Amino acid sequence: MTQKRVSLTQYLVEQQRMHGHIPGQLRLLIEVVARACKRIAISVNKGALGDVLGTAGTENVQGEVQKKLDVIANEVLIEANEWGGHLAAMASEEMDGIYVVPNRFPQGEYMLLFDPLDGSSNIDVNVSIGTIFSVLKKPEGHTGVSEEDFLQPGSQQAAAGYCIYGPQTTLVLTVGDGVAMFTLDREQGSFVLVQDDVRIPADTKEFAINMSNMRHWAPPVRRYIDECLAGKEGPRGKDFNMRWVASMVADVHRILTRGGIFMYPWDQREPDKPGKLRLLYEANPMSFLVEQAGGAATNGQQRILDVKPGKLHERVSVILGSKNEVERVTAYHQEAAR
Ligand code: AHM
Ligand code: MG
After folding, report:
1. Which domains does the chain have, with CATH numbers?
2. 133-153 pLDDT, tens per residue?
3. How far apart are CA 334 and CA 300, in angstroms?
4. If you take atom 16 of ligand 1, which residue's CA is the nearest one?
5. Mutate which of 71, 121, 132 to test ligand 1's pocket (most atoms within 8 Å of Cβ)?
6. Which ligand 1 atom is the nearest neighbour of the CA of 121?
7. How far, in Å, from the CA of 59 to the mean position of ligand 2?
8. Which ligand is located closest to the Cα atom of residue 122?
9. CA-based diameter of the chain, in Å?
10. Could you tell me the pLDDT band of residue 1, with boundaries at 50, 70 and 90?
11. Which residue from 108, 148, 129 is spatially nearest to 27, judged by alpha carbons?
12. Which residue of 52, 54, 167, 272 lies most exposed, with the fewest beta carbons within 10 A?
């Protein structure tokens, strides 16, 4: 007997029916984001044949050179999402301010944030990249929408996820009731459920960090990595393995699949910045997914989902993944602070 296949649409309808916690507008939003990701996947796969590699010749608000695919993915997500009536506004790594849904379309109650193409440095070298997204509800009690409305802690997210463009194109989603993974069936053109209730093991022997920054790290991060590197003979009494893809989506995907710890901590190169990664559309959605899969995510001091953002493109130090390891690094930070 062939196994019954569950599409993303069916999954969402059944979740809504069973738990009633996916309102119609949110379901539409997720379906539209998934459709946009399919379009982005097509561009990614074409590569040089689609003339999508290389730089766009522009810079984003963070002073980073934009790749053609950064710009294309941003446009695809906006075009797909602006007319459905499910959104009030959008914000993106690639746009300075918020994008308010134009007056000619109805305004919805949700707000969408995204990093349209995460892992930009990997685009031209044919290594896994992805789209990260976070969904917030527009605060009630006032008409219109402003940047201020986006400055909610990650614990308020209604949904979050990413789509990884790797050997397979896989959409990973949480609506606050566990984590599910859907792989794109290209012949059918639909995302098919491949894993429900994803769990991250609490312990791990694998860490992910950009080791070339070691000399710039704060002492608690150095201490943790030194202990891992000391292996069986060191205080941890076991050997560790290292991975660093330089696409957060790929590193997080591995952690959701087999455990591990990912860190992009504060470092001395830019002491005034809390970290490299952005809170609202990188750290928050990934932290929501990781917590929903039984892992943990902190900035060394506190749970990332409890951080109250001060601005749209705020950065944050990120430590996430297998619970016991994240708690260990966080404890090292707390000890150092005392
Ligand atoms: P991007 O959103 O511009 O691609 O930058 C974020 C990426 C993350 O995906 C990844 O973890 C990190 O930057 C890699 O940084 P580095 O090149 O410093 O190792
Ligand atoms: Mg990114």
Report:
1. 8-195 (3.30.540.10), 206-337 (3.40.190.80)
2. 999 999 998 889 999 999 999
3. 7
4. 246
5. 121
6. 4
7. 14
8. 1
9. 66
10. low
11. 108
12. 272
